[in-house]
Amino acid sequence: MVRIFIDPGHGGSDAGASGNGLTEKDLTLNIALTLDDVLNEQYDDVTTRLSRSTDTTVSLEERTNRANEWNADFFLSIHVNAGGGEGFESYIWNGNFTNKEETRRIRRTIHDTIVEQINWRDRGKKEANFHVLRQTSMPAVLTENGFIDNPEEAEQMRSEEWISSVARAHAEGIAEAFGIEESTESDPTPNTFYRVITGSFQTEANAKQRRYVLSKHGYDSFITEFHDGDSVYYRVVTGSFRNRDNAENRQNELRNIGFESFIVSFET
Description:
Layout: E1 2-8, E2 18-19, E3 22-23, H1 24-42, E4 46-50, H2 60-70, E5 74-81, E6 88-93, H3 100-118, E7 122-128, H4 131-134, E8 140-147, H5 151-157, H6 160-178, E9 192-201, H7 204-216, E10 222-228, E11 231-241, H8 244-256, E12 262-267
Parallel strand pairs: 1-4, 1-5, 5-8, 6-7
Antiparallel strand pairs: 2-3, 6-8, 9-11, 9-12, 10-11
């Protein structure tokens, strides 16, 4: 099981770069949430956590500490560039460290896949002394996905198609770098999903509180209503997967940090 820690740059009081009516913190979160869904729904033997799943402030120390405590296999920090320019670039730490060659290999695979998939101008594979690259104990890569202050690139950033394309390109690069196979679930109903329910509450307020607590642990979730006769329950969904094994892996992860969950199937 490969553990991927996804870090949407900035958030909360830290908006990051801005331009053309867009803010970096929103774009990075949308890419990260889509990437999280793609990896969990379409690939086997992979599990993920996010440094944030909502528009909240998370310190750099919190981000790296969470990844280190989880013993992640890979740390990905997603950003959007500014300052005049165009295209894509990526970074690893510029210091000397034991897994630098492995980090270079992983970065090369991810970088080249993204440039090819998005057809971006390649601004190069770079190194820098960023905290999230320096203080992580696993291979770490930071990606800069286009320029928010470039009117042409900003126009693309407004579309869901762009968000999806960038997220999927990251997913393909990660999968290739770590040898993660696409899901081969042989379910006769291809539109069957398995939801991990981490709490079923009689009040929506309690469900929202559970969502908040889960987000602090790096898990994205959403609330659905479940009707049982005249009663309504608010279920907190912490993952929706095509592959039941991935759903069970998420269930076990949550149990290990104190959250009991159950799995339900549904068809779309």
